[in-house]
Amino acid sequence: MGAPHIKFNEQDHPEFFKVLRKRVNAHFKGRNISRYANFNMKFKTLFMLVLYFTPMVLMSTGMIHSTLPMIAMWVLMGLGMSGIGLSVMHDANHGAYSKNQKVNDIVSFSLNFVGGYPINWRIQHNVLHHSFTNIEGYDEDIEKGVMRFSPTQKRLGFFKFQIFYAPILYGVLTIYWFLVKDFEQLIRYDKKELLEAHGITLKKGLLIVVFHKIWYTLLTLVLPMYMLNIIWWQVLLGFLLMHFISGMILALIFQPAHVVQETEFFSPKNGTVENNWAIHQMKTTSNFANGSFLFSWLIGGLNYQIEHHLFPNICHVHYRNIAPIVKETAKEFGVPYYHNKTFYNALVSHFTLLNKLGTGDYDKHLEEMNTAR
């Protein structure tokens, strides 16, 4: 089967992305700057790694040996874990950290310290999500089974409660990833022949994943249990707290970028989508809190999701500077540029949409719009 195929409408404003790409390229060339990691990015990488590994070392060496300080260490590790996911491994797995692919591979290995497997992540995120954003049956980010993220999905009765249980599921995102998801994905991607494109077999993938899960468990769970002078279940709770913090942060950053009231959702007809690929990205993606430099720095520039989806091979530290180019070009060609002014507004939009999708209010709105037409 190989990579899934969706045909985008190449006749839909084809000049938009040609002009935009030319202007963005001119931005880097005219200023003689690299589109890869700069000093800011390298400092951030060090910061996030230190934030994650320092508490681990303090616990593993027995320097922290009581309950409350240990909890503080797990909290810091949770923040560092999400920081690695948002700011470090994300760029590397997109090939945007360095023009040297070996450097990208080395940095992308940091995903293993978050409990994930880089090849699975690249297939789900780079291949499926970025190529087929908000397209039913292709974008796995909107296919969670126990939640309804798109009006194209069938509404089940219990979805009306999803606004209440969504935060809980978001919090267990990375622990589920660590325990189950990687194995499920390997099996599913093998059936779809997606592993082959990355030069790996199912057997080899399973062996690699098991190996990394074992040393990750020994390092982050077993070793602290051995070194800390506290009851084992307190260490386990700390470990779960770390994952809950990380999962919550990751989910609440990624979800408001695509599953909000402003964005659109698509179901392909005969393998065809009505828009040009770049126009499709503009209709299915939204920015938020672009006015906050510190917030953007901490979350890996992922509040500039439009720029990221159009130029995933550019390091996120440059998104703030190319955003005005994208916005102005979109305005010039009459293309939407969705943006929530604050992170709070983005969260409100996300959970409002979740509620409408769960209760069926969104479906009623669509029916009224279709009737009016």
Low-pLDDT residue spans: none
Instruction: Give the strand order of the largest sheet, numbering strands 1, 2, ... along the chain.
Output: 1-2
Number of domains: 1
For the record, give the distance between the C-alpha atoms at the N and C termini, rounded to a whole number: 39 Å
Derived structural class: mainly alpha
Helical content (DSSP H or I, runs of 4+) = 55-70%
The major β-sheet equals: 2 strands, parallel
> How much strand content do the residues show?
under 5%
Which H/E pattern describes the elements? EHHHHHHHHHEHEHHHEHH
**Principal-axes shape call:** globular
- How would you state the average pLDDT, rounded? 92
Radius of gyration in whole Å, from Cα? 21 Å
Number of strands: 4
Number of helices: 15
What do these coordinates show?
- The chain is mainly alpha-helical and 373 residues long.
- It has one domain (7-372).
- The protein is 62% helix and 3% strand.
- It is built from 15 helices and 4 strands.
- The longest helix has 27 residues, at 67-93.
- The two termini are 39 Å apart.
- The mean pLDDT is 92.
